[in-house]
Amino acid sequence: MKKTQQLYEGKAKKVYATEDDRYVIVDYKDDATAFNGLKKGSIAGKGVINNRVTNYMMKLLEEKGIPTHFVEEISQRETVVKKVKIIPLEVIVRNIAAGSFSKRFGVPEGQKLLCPTLEYCYKDDALGDPMVNDSHILACGWATKEELDTISSYALKINEIMQEFFLKANILLVDFKLEFGKTADGTIVLADEISPDTCRFWDATTMQKLDKDRFRRDLGGVEDAYQEIFKRLLGE
Ligand code: UDP
């Protein structure tokens, strides 16, 4: 499948139309942003790693019964995915307190949560992606009750699959963000990416951070952390 015109350029990816209007091509960039675009930079090799890690995870999740947008990896940085209408919610699952959860609730970073938590943020850069609850989502029509039930059950199942999978690579899955989309026939599928940009990964032995927090917090070793995740998952 070939790219035709560019449809969209986001912070980390470009999206292109194809000759077939059921599909689009995602092209992963090395650009990195944090704090709603306030911090900008570049992480060498990130686009390749995020593309390949995402596709690896999407295939694994499909095998375990989660419908995804994944179709075919066509190059190191490019993947054909189903064209979907993105549901404007960031779905955040947490197993260990960190980041905005720790800040908001005063729970120390690293404290294990008694059960996974699920949060939704309304995707709107101008508003700073505010946290919303189920009733806000239904009242504003961002998803129906049925869609939200599907999304929450997929998110928790994805968490179980991913937690177990990453632990085998000696990685703690601290938290992560998912996005879902709706295909033309109304099916809800997992979309966007699953990568060190969108997940917090800690080495289970040393607690070393192996994700975008190294960039956000100027911890150094950003490229090495992304490479380490790549190596542990894909063995390269
Ligand atoms: N996250 C993301 N995109 C966002 C916000 C959060 O991918 O726009 C991910 C982030 O990498 C982390 C999880 O969601 O794995 C929870 O992030 P948190 O709410 O703690 O926000 P942060 O501290 O990253 O601002």
- Binned strand content: 25-35%
Counting DSSP H or I runs of 4 or more residues, the number of helices is: 6
Number of domains: 2
Secondary structural class = alpha+beta
CATH superfamily of the largest domain: ATP-grasp fold, B domain
Principal-axis shape: globular
CATH topology call of the largest domain: D-amino Acid Aminotransferase, Chain A, domain 1
End-to-end span in angstroms? 27 Å
Relevant terms:
236 residues, alpha+beta, Phosphorylase Kinase, domain 1, D-amino Acid Aminotransferase, Chain A, domain 1, 7-stranded antiparallel sheet, 14 strands, 31% helix, binds uridine-5'-diphosphate
Describe this structure in words.
The protein is built from 6 helices and 14 strands. It is 31% helix and 34% strand. It has 2 domains: 3-82, Phosphorylase Kinase, domain 1 (2-Layer Sandwich), CATH 3.30.200.20; 85-222, 2-Layer Sandwich (D-amino Acid Aminotransferase, Chain A, domain 1). It has 236 residues and is α+β, with helices and mostly antiparallel strands. The chain is globular and about 50 Å long. The strands form 3 sheets. Strands 8, 9, 10, 11, 12, 13 and 14 form a 7-stranded antiparallel sheet that branches. Strands 1-2-3-7-6 form a 5-stranded antiparallel sheet. β12 (171-182) and β13 form a beta hairpin. The structure holds uridine-5'-diphosphate. Uridine-5'-diphosphate binds at residues 90, 92, 98-101, 129, 175-177, 198-200, 212. Uridine-5'-diphosphate (UDP) binds at residues 90, 92, 98-101, 129, 175-177, 198-200, 212.
